[in-house]
Amino acid sequence: MVDKLNDDIGEEKRLQLWEMMLKLRLVEKKAYDLFLQNLIKGTSHLALGQEAIAGAFGVALKQGDYTFCTYRGHAHTLARGSSIEGVLGELMGRQCGLMKGKGGSMHLTDVDNGVMGSYAIIGAHLTIANGTALASKYNKTNEVSVCFFGDGTTNIGAFHEALNMAKIWNLPIVFVCENNLYMEYTPIHEVTAVEHPAADRAGAYDLDKIIVDGNDADEMLRTAEKAISKAREGKGPSLIEAKTYRHSGHSRADPGKYRPDEEVKDWMENKDPIKNYRAKLLDFNINEKIISEIEEKIKDQVEKATEISMASPIPEIKEIYTDVWANGGSEWHN
Amino acid sequence: MAQLTYRASVSLAIAQSMRKDQKVFFIGEDVGAAGGVFKATVGLLEEFGKERVMDAPISEQAILGAAMGAAMTGLRPIAEIMFSDFLAVCWDIVANQIAKTRYMSDGQINIPLVIRTANGGGSKFGAQHSQSLENWSMMIPGLKVVAPSCPSDVLGLMDSAVKDPDPVIFYEHKSLYAFKEEIEQTDISIPIGEANTLHEGKDITIIGLALMAQRAKEAALILKDKHDINAKVIDLRSLVPLDLQTIKKSVIETGHVLTVEENPRLCGWGAEISSLISEHCFKNLKGPVTRVTTPHVPLPSADILEDNTIPSVELIVNEVIKKLKGE
Question: How many interface pairs between A and B have CB atoms less than 8 angstroms apart?
Fold first, then answer.
């Protein structure tokens, strides 16, 4: 039962979180539809089912903070305030895309909104996120850097190098492991020495062991706010392990058949963060009309953004030769 | 006028850049309190303190990742990778992240950083601490590749590298750290992408880099004194950007070209230069462009083995005589 008297989050923030998560869900669903229509090429890694994590951080972070995500990064990019057409347009290879088709689904970047890139080589961005955190410390400014990654990342060297460096230099950074139980196609427990791939390693770097239900949006928000405050106050890094589950396969090419039907059904029906949060909003006596209005608003935004993206021109071929160098070009000899 | 070693010019160049710009900081393993394993960064910690001269753990990925992230915010890090061979353990950060992020982000992100690294053989360190790896970075779009051959070039090119808005890999040659030069002015700037002529001549063009440029110059002096051959020696100074115009101008004059590379044969930078000369100067050539490289083997350690693997002055002299006189 909800404790309405001691509600530390409040209606305004809850509706903000609801709107955020719904946007992430509906844009990912639209991305899936556009793939089926062959309007999006290449690959994509959807975060359907994992929206509470990116959503909570999106609500908790401030303008100016830095985020780094993986190739499964559409949701994390949108959560910082990037436009829907910027994301869908990039997936469709259109000029309205965040990088005008230069990067694609796995590399969404939107510096104006603090999205410092989506990284497709496992582990690398943990070390790079340390760099923006180091810059904040060096410049004596108070931005926080947040780095999202999957459970599989905990078994690559860069994870360990990055955690050690963040700790010894007391960097203002939050590492967020989204443990969706599968490292691509393989159950994470089959290939990891410890039960909790991130949290059980925290002690090795003198960090607290933090495990959170990543599908409980309220708990996720509380955990995010606490770690962000700690970093902003100069009290150093945190490592959070958020348990979650992806509703679809690893990537476009993967139907996810390696997962037991009962397990998938349980997560989809009983642990879906969106479905459960809607019920929670009603438990808190939030007017269903307000909830539905937000749903209609987001649906409308997604449809409009899709139209904008489809109408946006494809890139000009000359763009191949631009922006290798800071002078805008790609020349390598005189 | 003062005599300066290549080693001392490295620490001076870094210090000069750090004095000029508060955004410049320096990070690496054993670079601060220890002054660097080659003693090329002595005095920096004392002058700039721990906030700007950071001793890092043996974590090459974390070092370059931190440098990259800081550069993304507008800082201008200089990161040291102790031996260029160690680039192999952080090559993802170099080749996939630092090199490509500007392009993939459609120019949203600049990465103004310098990666300094001790490169090349001559110290009998064996195959994993002696490689000449400029060509690894040359083949990755998005990286600038600099390799100075003398103390004044270290000073001038480091100044430009730190100011450059793009990532620069700065290959210092281990066998040149003791190399001395009379220097009038230390606070100098040399644009990246301008080759330097170390010896004038109209009979043949010898193209080298770093230690090989110095050996080519020594060879040119012998060729002139003892064999009446006037060789023009071009020190490329940087592979990316490449000063093709200086190469073309000389090839048009001489018609003969020899590249001198310290790397193993396959895919060495001389192959690209040879291809460019074929495309741009074919009608000016009086014979094939030829290359002196190390054999296609890992570098051995023993004196006699290493000395006979890396191109020597004598080998360069003999190759030139063979080309021009058919001997």
Answer: 161
